[in-house]
Amino acid sequence: MATATVAGALGVVFARNPIASVLALLGCFFGLATIYLLAGFQFLAAAQILVYAGAIMVLFLFVIMLLNLGHAGGLPKLDRAIFVQRRSTLAIAIAAALLGAVAFGVGAMHEPAAVGAMPEHGLDAPASLAASLFGPYALPFEATSLLLLATAVAVLVLAKRTRTGGGGS
Amino acid sequence: MTIPSGHLLLLAAILFAIGVAGFLVRRNVIVVLMSIELMLNAANLSFIAGSRMHALATPNAAPDMQGPVFAIFVIVVAAVEAAVGLALVIAMYRHKRSVSLDGVHEMKG
User: How far, in Å, CA of B105 to CA of B29, rounded?
Assistant: First the structure.
């Protein structure tokens, strides 16, 4: 499952067609949802599929088709043409450094032994999740609703056609 | 149950590294946005790994929901970021007829 997820992630970066990128990312998200499920986070797996695979990916596909970017004639001929050449070395160095640091950390980590069995409803039972969302995290939760409202307004303003001439909106 | 949580952290690191590389090297702004989503997902996965390590080591304590709650907040922020980013892409496409980052240098000082 992890292999499928990483393959999807690589597909996002190396695909020439943006639609292929979206589909690869979709595969990556489904792989991640399966990993959440296997790790015992059932609610998060469902949320991952609903929000990411269901909503965000549709948004990406919608924009790509709206802007007509997936047409065959417009694809770059050379594989190299999709990359910014002068940044590639830097990017690979940064990615390798991050990966090496975390791999070193995980190798040096002493993972506490699992002493109990997995609870029946997983590690994120919706009841306890809701108890924390509306208990200690009530303020961030309300702030999130404000953020969503602000986003809706901002997207409307951004995506509106620019006015020609002086009329009001 | 049998997956060590350290492997989840390692997978998160791999995904994050791929996201960073994609963010830096791609020219297509939509693919750059997708790389950001990839990095946010890697962050989510490491929240999950930490929460799981804690929960499995202390099974009798009250369930600690910090990891999942923050993962949900990250998902919300990712959705918001995708919406605003794609609206910007549409505005940029109207302006320039292109989604390539090559010709974007208005913000250069």
Answer: 14
In a domain, A152, yes or no: yes
Residue A153 forms contact with B (CB below 8 Å): no
Domain membership flag for residue A112: no
pLDDT in tens, A19-76: 888 999 999 999 999 999 888 888 899 999 999 888 898 999 888 888 877 665 555 5
B25 part of contact set with chain A, CB < 8 Å:
yes
Q: Which of B6, B73, B93 sits opposite A106 (nearest CB)?
A: B6
**Interatomic CA distance for residues A22 and A8, integer angstroms:** 10
**Entry pTM:** 0.84
Residues of chain B contacting residue A161, judged by C-beta atoms under 8 Å apart:
94
Whether A31 maps to a domain, the answer reads yes
Domain B5-96 has CATH 2.170.120.12: no
Range of the domain at A56: 1-71
Interface touch A98/B20, C-beta < 8 Å = yes
Q: Which among A71, A90, A108 is the end of a domain?
A: A71
The partner residue sitting opposite A95, judged by closest CB among B20, B41, B89, is B20
